[in-house]
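Reply to thread "Modeling small-molecule complexes from scratch"

Following up on the discussion above, here's a worked example others can learn from. I took a protein sequence and the SMILES for zinc ion and predicted the complex. Inputs first:
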Amino acid sequence: MTQVVRVGGEAPYDVRIGRGVLAELDTLVPAVVRRVAVLHQPTVASVADRIAAGLAAPNREVSLFPLPDGEAAKTVATAANLWDGLASAGFTRTDLIIGVGGGAATDLAGFVAATWLRGVDVVQVPTTLAGMVDAAIGGKTGINLDAGKNLVGAFHPPRAVLCDVGLLATVPPADYAAGLAEVIKTGFIADPVILELVEADPAAARTPAGPHTEELIVRSVAVKAAVVAADLRERIGTQLGREVLNYGHTLGHAIERREQYRWRHGDAVAVGLVFAAALARHAGLLDDATAERHRRILSAVGLPTRYPKEAWPELRAAMAIDKKARGSTLRFVVLEAIGRPRILADPDPAVLEAAYAEVAE
Ligand SMILES: NC(=O)c1ccc[n+]([C@@H]2O[C@H](COP(=O)([O-])OP(=O)(O)OC[C@H]3O[C@@H](n4cnc5c(N)ncnc54)[C@H](O)[C@@H]3O)[C@@H](O)[C@H]2O)c1
Ligand SMILES: O=C(O)C(=O)C[C@@H](O)[C@H](O)[C@H](O)COP(=O)(O)O
Ligand SMILES: [Zn+2]
């Protein structure tokens, strides 16, 4: 059965979730679309082929653009190659880009769609857990620089997102676990049932064949949809808006940069979540048990919760370029309790160091 989560706001669209929803793609592409560019990861070339076959029509040209795998796709060079490819294909404003793959592919496809002719439509077909629960939804698109993660990008909501849960069967276990970091993040910021479902049977949560896979996806998507509908462009206001989705990412992105994007995003976020919980605890905001629950649940699904001690000065410096920072003020998403996130601005250096000591090994 297809479940549909509507993402409201200035440009509403549906996220369609279920086994086999990919078959619905052709009904979402209007006849007026004469050219379709399918940007896909090499691991899901067969999915891209199916999409191309399904969209074939008289007077329509469907082109496949294979991407470098993983974070290697999120570069200026890849984007520039694709811009050249779209130019050669004569891609116009009524044409369509489809992003197929994990979050790296949907981030890049969204970015190319946002920038080509200053914006053409994109439909996202995420094929990993991180892609389905987070990356393909909400219109945050972007590429990395040596200086930091996702530093260049645009807010460009998709026209539709198709999460075909059947496609998860081939995702390597470590990549699937990395996606669980975003699911667990979502549980801590807004939906404790997610945490309960994972904790009840962590081994089952680690596989797409588990009994709660669809429920975990739908719950995570519902939280993200509500946040994005209220604050697409991550404006700072008196209420905590989209920044809440960045829980665990301040240190996480610094780790990714230090690892030159060879660590999985979800692995880095997992360490970042444990750090953020420790930060809240040392700032006197969060109780010990909830902080400890972060490490326990992340470890239970096989995610890392520690990082080398000697990395701290480099990580501390890298965090200064986090998008939530303002001037020289570091701003972290922290919890006062499960489902009660807030911003902690400019924490005392001693508090930061004490929090890092808890993830250091
Ligand atoms: N824009 C956002 O809001 C947002 C949210 C979360 C994450 N992200 C970004 O998403 C990226 C992480 O996404 P990810 O974890 O999906 O990683 P990824 O895109 O690198 O994919 C992980 C691996 O899985 C492979 N793969 C994808 N689908 C597969 C399938 N069905 N079967 C077999 N292999 C498959 C990929 O080829 C890759 O090797 C990061 O760049 C992160 O910054 C963005
Ligand atoms: O959608 C959002 O907003 C998020 O912050 C979701 C994050 O999981 C995601 O990794 C995002 O790309 C991070 O955004 P950034 O603005 O810190 O680059
Ligand atoms: Zn993330």
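What I'd highlight from this example: Residues 173-359 form a domain with the Dehydroquinate synthase-like, alpha domain fold (CATH 1.20.1090.10). The pocket of LNCXM5UN (ligand 2) is lined by residues 134, 138, 140, 149-150, 182, 242, 245-246, 249, 323 (CB under 6 Å). Questions welcome below.
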